[in-house]
Q: What sequence folds into this?
């Protein structure tokens, strides 16, 4: 396999992953792993969750009271129906797994990892902008920027 030369490395020396890139990758592994675990739990128990949300919306006995805004949000989710809800979960799982693939490649100092990660998280930014999740927007842009700052160490 032919590797691109890296001007930051002496001849015939294997590239070393910078400590900052290692920390970023570990944080991404933890976050993506946690979210994938939660998404798989949602996938497995989606019918129970859906019926619990219906009970919560109608104010069944033993359910806590919810505000009008929460009722609107729950109604919008329930209006999707269980099939669209499952599709949304499946799409999220695919996106996080693809993002995780990018992180694994960056862990191995492969430039394609950054392209994969930035592409998938760039797509996710559109959802964050539409939903008004400003914290997610800032966090995603910050991580893409921090990975970009380490791009020069990636050789393949």
A:
């Amino acid at each position: 396999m032919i590797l691109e030369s890296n001007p930051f490395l002496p001849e015939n020396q294997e590239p070393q992953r910078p400590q900052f890139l290692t920390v970023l990758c570990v944080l991404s592994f933890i976050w993506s792993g946690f979210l994938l675990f939660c998404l798989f739990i949602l996938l497995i128990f989606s019918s129970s969750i859906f019926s619990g949300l219906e009970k919560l919306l109608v104010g069944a006995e033993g359910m806590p009271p919810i505000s009008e805004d929460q009722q609107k949000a729950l109604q919008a989710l329930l209006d999707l129906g269980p099939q669209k809800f499952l599709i949304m979960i499946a799409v999220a799982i695919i996106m996080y797994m693809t993002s995780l693939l990018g992180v694994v490649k960056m862990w191995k100092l492969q430039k394609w990892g950054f392209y994969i990660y930035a592409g998938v998280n760039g797509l996710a930014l559109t959802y964050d902008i539409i939903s008004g999740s400003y914290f997610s927007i800032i966090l995603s842009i910050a991580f893409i920027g921090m990975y970009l700052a380490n791009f020069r160490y990636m050789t393949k």
Notes: The chain is about 75% helix and 0% strand. The chain has one domain: 19-153. The chain has a mean pLDDT of 88.
